[in-house]
Amino acid sequence: MPATIRDVARLAGVSPSTVSRALSLPDVVNAATRARVQAAADQLGYAPNRAARGLITGRTGNIGLVVPDMANPFFPSVVKGVQARARMHDVAVFLADTDEDVASEVSLVNALAKQVDGMILCSPRSSDEELGAIAAESNVVLVNRLVEGVPAVTFDNEGGMRQAIAHLVALGHRKIAWVGGPMSSWSGAHRNIGLFAAARDHGAELTDVGHFAPTYEGGMAAADQAVATGATAVVAYNDLVAIGLLARLHARGISVPGDVSVVGIDDIAMAAMARPALTTVRLPKQKSGEIAVELLLAMIDDPDPDTIIGTRGTLQGELMVRDSTGVASSPANP
Length: 334
Prior knowledge:
There is one protein chain. The chain has helices at about 5-10, 15-25, 30-45, 50-55, 75-90, 100-115, 130-135, 155-170, 185-200, 215-230, 240-250, 270-275, 285-300, and strands spanning about 60-65, 90-95, 120, 140-145, 150-155, 175-180, 205-210, 235, 260-265, 280, 310-315, 320. It is an alpha/beta fold. A six-stranded parallel beta sheet has the order 2-1-3-4-5-11, sandwiched between helices. Strands 7-6-8-9-10-12 form a six-stranded mixed beta sheet, sandwiched between helices. The model has no long low-confidence stretch (mean pLDDT about 90). It has 13 helices and twelve strands. Helix 1 crosses helix 3 and helix 5 packs across helix 13.
């Protein structure tokens, strides 16, 4: 039979209520007693009941994670990071997918907030004002998004784009097309900033093809317009869009990288498996989830510490050079 709190109390030589306090509210128990209780619990393999502990602490032992689209391979890596780190802290994760529906994102987040101690919002599409209002009522950490006063983990999107442009210019590309993602994407806006700044610094001509769905189909739809610009290289909003570009270019008989080079962003698993293998900016996705959990749990423990509110962690990207980029040739024939 599994060990009970009474078994732990008997072995430690204390009352069951002391065991409960030592494991749920350790700060109110002296260090020697707390150590004795923990040693007894470890020896017996005792794990406190989450529901019972919640009655004492007023916490659920759950956190929420909200993503825009679980079908996008970028987000499962973040989820794995969140789940792995939450498991280390004996915390359960409730996952919600907004399906890129900006209109329903706020209502979904508000509903989830009632069931958890705090939430991680990954790449949320809502406005700064809406996210600020949510953060004012709940413990919130953002991933891949910045809002004033809200703890966040972000990627250096601008730096990653500078790496991509520098790589393409070094290969002789001077006319480059940019296939953007959703207009509401915070990271997309910052990638845009980094791209145009880098193109200007390197004397390259960058054409913004427009906003497209952040999907394989979005890349397919953008390919013809990208080719029509006469660019010898295309930078895509993410790897899924880039892989869609590769497919459409292949269907048109346009060689990659012989005629046009293609660069993605994210380094999802499929990037290396694409044909040709995709040059992309690798983002530390799993690491972002791990850090977000640590920030959120620190906030839950102390809802208003100066060291947490407004904390921003920025993770650097790394250019992964593969087969989809090569020396520039004459512009592709539209």
